[in-house]
Specification:
By secondary structure, the chain is of the alpha+beta class. The chain is built from five helices and five strands. It holds the Pfam family Fer2_2.
Length: 158
């Protein structure tokens, strides 16, 4: 198996590692960097539990090789806030009960964070579209949508 050197900026820190050519980004984050907030779900790109931001865009880290992230900026759930405080999206997920089992939460929060960075005042329909790549088996999405709308500072839909 071929090995290659990669340098990836993860949550503001540069990491250089030798990786196998077939190492998935999700495995690099979890196994090499011990950033286990990024979850492994379906490993097919269908569930969104492994969503991270790659150069500010939400992507399924189970579909990307670590080699493809070489020289890029990765943000995981551990880096969504640059302080010891929760981000506003994380706070609203807690406040609105948008987390039940919590498995989808990191990916959902990453998608919501990207959505609000691009569109600070989305409609409820835009929120639904923004999280459409993230599956949740517990909440029915209502509280997730409310939490994201609250994080945007807007009125909460009924």
């Amino acid at each position: 198996m071929q090995h290659q050197l990669v340098t990836i900026n993860v949550n503001g820190d540069e990491y250089t590692r030798v990786v196998k050519a077939n190492t998935l980004l999700v495995n690099f984050l979890r196994d090499e960097l011990d950033l286990t907030g990024t979850k492994k779900g379906c490993e097919l790109g269908d569930c969104g539990s492994c969503t991270i931001l790659l150069d500010g865009k939400p992507v399924n880290s189970c579909l990307i090789l670590a080699l493809d992230a070489d020289g890029k900026k990765v943000t995981t759930i551990e880096g969504v806030s640059d302080t010891d405080q929760l981000s506003v999206v994380q706070e609203k997920f807690v406040e609105y009960g948008a987390i039940q089992c919590g498995y989808c939460a990191p990916g959902m929060i990453m998608s919501a964070t990207a959505l609000l960075a691009e569109n600070p005042k989305p409609t409820a329909e835009e929120v639904r579209a923004g999280i459409s790549g993230n599956l949740c088996r517990c909440t029915g999405y209502i509280n997730i949508i409310k939490a994201i709308m609250a994080a945007s500072g807007q009125e909460i839909p009924n």
